[in-house]
Predict the structure of 4-aminobutyrate aminotransferase.
Amino acid sequence: MTFASSSSAAASLTRTAASRAQATVLRRRGFGTYPGQPSGPNVLTSSVPGPKSKAVLDDLNQVGDFRTAIVALQYPKCKGNYVVDADDNTHLDMFGQIASISVGYRNEELEKVARTEEFAMAAMNRPALGVFPPVDWRATLDAGLRKDSVRPRGLSQIFTANCGSTANESAYKACFMAYMHRKRGHSDFDQKTMASSMDNAAPGAPTLSMLSFKTGFHGRLFGSLSTTRSKPIHKLDIPAFDWPAVDWPALKYPLEEHEAENRKEEERVIALVEETIEQWETKAPVAAVVVEPIQSEGGDNHASPHFFRRLREVTIQKGVYMIVDEVQTGVGATGTFWAHEKWDLPTPPDAVSFSKKMQAAGYYHTEELRPSAGYRNFNTWMGDPARAIQAREIIRYIEAHSLVSHTASMGTQLHSILASLSSRYPTLVQNLRGKTEGTFQAFDCETGKERDALVAGMRKRGVLVGGSGERAVRLRPLLIFGEKELEIFAETLEATLKEMA
Amino acid sequence: MTFASSSSAAASLTRTAASRAQATVLRRRGFGTYPGQPSGPNVLTSSVPGPKSKAVLDDLNQVGDFRTAIVALQYPKCKGNYVVDADDNTHLDMFGQIASISVGYRNEELEKVARTEEFAMAAMNRPALGVFPPVDWRATLDAGLRKDSVRPRGLSQIFTANCGSTANESAYKACFMAYMHRKRGHSDFDQKTMASSMDNAAPGAPTLSMLSFKTGFHGRLFGSLSTTRSKPIHKLDIPAFDWPAVDWPALKYPLEEHEAENRKEEERVIALVEETIEQWETKAPVAAVVVEPIQSEGGDNHASPHFFRRLREVTIQKGVYMIVDEVQTGVGATGTFWAHEKWDLPTPPDAVSFSKKMQAAGYYHTEELRPSAGYRNFNTWMGDPARAIQAREIIRYIEAHSLVSHTASMGTQLHSILASLSSRYPTLVQNLRGKTEGTFQAFDCETGKERDALVAGMRKRGVLVGGSGERAVRLRPLLIFGEKELEIFAETLEATLKEMA
């Protein structure tokens, strides 16, 4: 079925004079009609996955665990906002490979760069960056990951890594080292400290902790998983550090309608953070707090800029570092390059981690978080020049096409549509969030069962959206998500809701 | 200075009739004279790093920690076995980016693949493999990482990851899950288990352990670092799990001259492993033992095939999984594709991890190590098709040029040279190891200070070798290391030793 030429009440919501004018601007820039992409979703099979996808996934399941796979994709046929599966079904992708695709499938400018000597050479001659960096490594960083328009304000340093989990864990290590350095007051290690470190025992391997928030997600390796509190399926049977976690503020949505009571709840949590840091001082002192600007796997849980400013205040008062995990929120999707820009912090966070849409991973940090000696925070590859070149080109493309402000503007329109549908289908579309967060939006269904049905209903109509937490639908469109896609999304969601209601 | 045309006694050691015949064969295949590579090292500056490298590294140090860097390289100018630094010094690279380069710098066949549509597309359209795998993912695996000639015998399954640490930690997770599954006898989780997992507490986050060996190295994230026991600098100030570690057998080298006493020492350690597993049963049961075939960062410490067969026996008897960490030893450098092939195990290990020379990372495993449900061992990218394509091409190149048997044969010659130098410089070249391990060889100097001087002496003459452990020199030449390079190495080592003696 094709939605390209159909029309609906929800779609018409986007057709104000203002949005028409905007659409013209965007089309001129090449979006809304992303060059060469399909005109709309097209599902040919009676179910998704279709028989060919099923066969591919069954085959893969023989050699690894692919029970989680939704469909197998023909990547060569994907384009712009659209993916094509093994059965030639075309889907509008509003999930973006778990929020990691930014500037579109088969982006010609990116693939052109991929075929340059610079990229081919970087990919096939991967250095051990910490020992033999390329002569132009600083230039690559400065033109991309460390570009003035990109690098978070106040953070001069960068540590590159390979994925979100390794980025976060390397930042944790830096915080633990800096915390102990400050406590010791010097950079020498006595014999007892050195020897005990080799036995995984204090004082060399100190009993310190990372503080995180309940329902938060920071990765799935042993350190990052110890700060992840999303779902049992992520954590069961894996040994974890005894580290503290505090409530995430239980806010009422939409935020702007419940400011007073939300403020109170946020203050309750801030007090809890303070108390927890104090209580753990004798048990396992908290070296750092790690926090997502929007809890992205755990249910799209938001908090206000006020909350984060207070958190920064408390961490400074208590001498605890603050890591902002922007692995999912970073790189434009929230309508600013970094979600934490909106907080207007008087003092920057100590570290900001990134991955996903950047394609390269790592964290920005203060000078204080530099280790006291070389080889302390180190590994073989220390990042990847090929991925750093890719990040440089993604950034260039985002800036050339003003995709961050485009996404902010698309977010406003997306929110209007969801607000209208929420008033008409209040049990299926509730607790809207992300009004001012670009297209990084979400809503709840009344139950998890309804949420699953809604996601499946969208999928059979050729629109891929994700779930998060217990009953949230999370939208993670690409940064090139335009007016036409918005129209299709609105029509598809409405048709799904109509069928479910 | 150039060594290309000089001659020495050490070099002449390689010139037996047999080796001459062999060299002819290798040259015919394109090695010994790797196409287009420099004829020898050429150091133009009075010290290494030279002024230009120093300037590049100083500049990099402004934005990150590059105190560990030796020289900055001009990667476009590197070729075959040789790297060219910022000052145009040419070095014979026998360290290979910490043992991660296999088939030569600027390998034309690899770079040709990098520029294909297949690779460019894979690199710039990175999937979330666990959710939307490419239709040809199984084919990519089967032609490369899972190829019959590559996949360790008895291990049908593969889990792909991003680096050695993430490969090992994902394998650890699989072992913990399988261990608990076996203990429970079913795949259901009760409410108490689910709830406690969210609090990082038992029974949901059980107090289990991984057993590793002292002086071993398995990575630097929180789980892998807890099994790493190489050096304090790797571990200081980082919280660690209270997990057991047992002695590595303190063997006498060369192994073949001390078989009886080494056997006794290995049996002592095997008994220690058994005891430790028993002792920890009430404290934190050991779910798995992780072991390197050759302890590579911790000092190039070897053990005999007998030791590993006994270790496999004990792990089976005790119901403990066995992970073989082939991150540094894998992919041909030891003269077999996997170092553990030489053990002739009656039962394969439960998991074998890889990274470095494969450029792709992950672990092979048994069906028993598949998680009981989807999403239990999962992350966003789940590996990288671009790196899997690169691995496929590396494997194809290795096989087309018989580089594994070539490396075995080069190892024999390399060992002869080291044996001769050892008899002439017994304090500076002692405890030779790796006679039957391809070019994956090492020797000790009497002291760490002498080792550092030797490595520096080689470096100023344009040959890069590494150190490991307290006083070992580790050799990690590429798989394309040929007769000519061996000659240069022999001459350079001898000149260095002569100067030091």
The radius of gyration of chain B is 23 Å. Chain B has two domains: 9-103+402-500, 117-182+208-399. The domain at 117-182+208-399 of chain B is CATH 3.40.640.10 (Aspartate Aminotransferase; domain 2). The longest helix of chain B spans residues 259-280.
